[in-house]
Amino acid sequence: MVRLEKLTKTYKTGDQALKAVDLDIPEGQVLALIGPSGAGKSTLIRCLNRLVEPTGGKAWLGETELTSLSQGRLRKARRRIGMIFQEYALVERLTVMENVLSGRLGYVGFWRSFLRRYPQKDVDEAFRLLDRVGLLHMADKRADELSGGQRQRVGICRALIQDPDLLLVDEPTASLDPKTSRQIMRLIVELCQERRLAAIINIHDVALAQMFVQRVIGLEFGSVVFDGAPDGLTPDVLTQIYGEEDWEATIQKDEGRSSEEVEESAW
Amino acid sequence: MVTLQKEGVMSWRRRTTGRALLGWFGWLMGVALFMYCWQQISASTTWFFVWDAPRVAEDIWSRATPPRWEYIAKLGRPIWDTLNIATLGTLIALCFAVPVAFLAARNTTPSALFIRPIALLIIVSSRSINSLIWALLLIAIIGPGVFAGIAAIAIRSIGFCAKLLYEAIEEIDETQVEAIVATGASRWQVMAYGIVPQIMPAFAGIAVFRWDINIRESTVLGLVGAGGIGLQLSASLNVLAWPQVSLILLVILAAVVLGEWVSAKIRGAII
């Protein structure tokens, strides 16, 4: 589904954010990308929809090679890649409905979008998605009136209405409280399963990642240092990714323990 | 910042002794310069006229009161012209200022090397010349009248509006723009969805603020023959008809107060 071949990004300052990353993501797989700040997590997912231009290597989405696309073709490819942001990145002064429908911008012409005359099936889909995330009654509210969790749900709707093949998720829970974080992660994972969507989730909360994903990639200084199932994240592995620290409390506990204890130790 | 260690005590002062003395010397020179300038101005002032000022002012005040109220019948049309000059001038200026602002803003300009300097040049040249001088130039070119006034106000306002607007564009939140780009939107769609909603409050504020300024500026344009109430003002001053002058000043005051009130209302409604 998604294949990276020696994907490299060197910033103008000379910082190597990505060092020849190889990665293969099958259809429908939800993958967590963990690593310390500055490890290149954001750069990696931004290189896929070319919000950041990679400086070397190749990236395939299905049969399309992304790094060599012209501007016009890139726009078409971006429609197939939904993105969810850390600070939600909703257009604050537009309504919830306008924000959701903006996910269709790649499909409708300028004047239709400018006059807010979206095709009826897009409007139907927008209402259906808002209903799915429990925000139907908020459709006409302005985005800046919503709480953090609600905004992130709108962000999810905006990404999904693109009808993407791949979801890029950049720190979806970094600005949310623990309970909302779980709800948002659960929602993202459920929606990906419903639609057989592949997703790359940047996340710095290791316990949360272990709870929800099938596969974890550990990134350090722009290189993949871990690739495996969530229970493969031993203290040794975490030390390798993040550096020396007492990791016992971070790692998800065995099933045998009571849920309260997990709750406590996780946060 | 100086930290000194003396007899085991860490003392701290903001400046070293040398720097503190230098600071005091600077102040001394400043005061001396001020005194010198004062003396120069004093020497070239005809103090007789200054001492005479209260008497002359009182004389004019007594001639100007009470205002000649019946003259107001002739002021309706000129004050209407003045308001129109301000409003139309502002609207025309905004039409030009918006594209110039987008060309001048670092994050939206098509070319930072060629087009941005041109846009900045337009802004600077429009801002650097007062609207009264623009009016003088335009009267020479297109003849006296309301149109010259509108053009003068418009040209003067383009730079002002474009400058404030391009600063607003440069301060937008880029992640909102990124999110719209990521959906596969075209360049124009990114502008309409990612940028325009973010600068709308600034735009409304700038437009209303400039309209407010333009009402005041357009009252004096008549002095040079560019239409509006200034025409009556200069005519009355020329024949020393002080009761008419005082009435005109009152009408201008009323118009400006009205403008302030309307712009405060609009600003409150939009932001």
Description:
The complex is a heterodimer of chains A (267) and B (271). By secondary structure, chain A is α/β, with parallel strands linked by helices. Helices cover 36% and strands 22% of the residues of chain A. In chain A, the strands form two sheets. Chain A has a six-stranded mixed beta sheet, with helices on both faces. In chain A, strands 2-1-4-5 form a four-stranded antiparallel beta sheet. In chain A, a hairpin with a 2-residue loop joins strand 9 and strand 10 (223-228). The longest helix of chain A is centred in the C-terminal third of the chain and has 18 residues, at 178-195. Chain B is mostly helical and 271 residues long. In chain B, strand 1 (2-6) and strand 2 (9-13) form a beta hairpin. Chain B has helices spanning 17-43, 47-64, 76-104, 115-128, 131-142, 146-170, 174-182, 187-221, 229-238, 242-270, and strands at 2-6, 9-13. Chain B folds into two domains: 2-63, no CATH class; 74-270, MetI-like (MetI-like fold, Orthogonal Bundle), CATH 1.10.3720. The chains are: A alpha/beta (267), B mainly alpha (271). Chain A binds chain B through residues 49, 51, 75-79, 81, 83, 85, 87, 89-94, 98, 102-107, 110, 113-114, 155, 158, 162, 168, and chain B through 173, 175-176, 178-186, 188-189, 192-194, 197-198, 200-201.
Q: What spatial form of chain A do the alpha-carbon principal axes imply?
A: globular
State the name of the first-level CATH class of the largest domain in chain B. Answer: Mainly Alpha
Overall structural domain count of chain B: 2
Distance between the termini of chain B: 44 Å
Quick structural overview:
By secondary structure, chain A is α/β, with parallel strands linked by helices. Chain A has helices at 41-48, 71-79, 96-101, 110-114, 120-132, 148-160, 178-195, 206-212, 235-242, 259-266, and strands spanning 2-10, 16-25, 30-34, 56-61, 64-65, 81-84, 166-170, 198-202, 215-220, 223-228. Chain A has 10 helices and 10 strands.
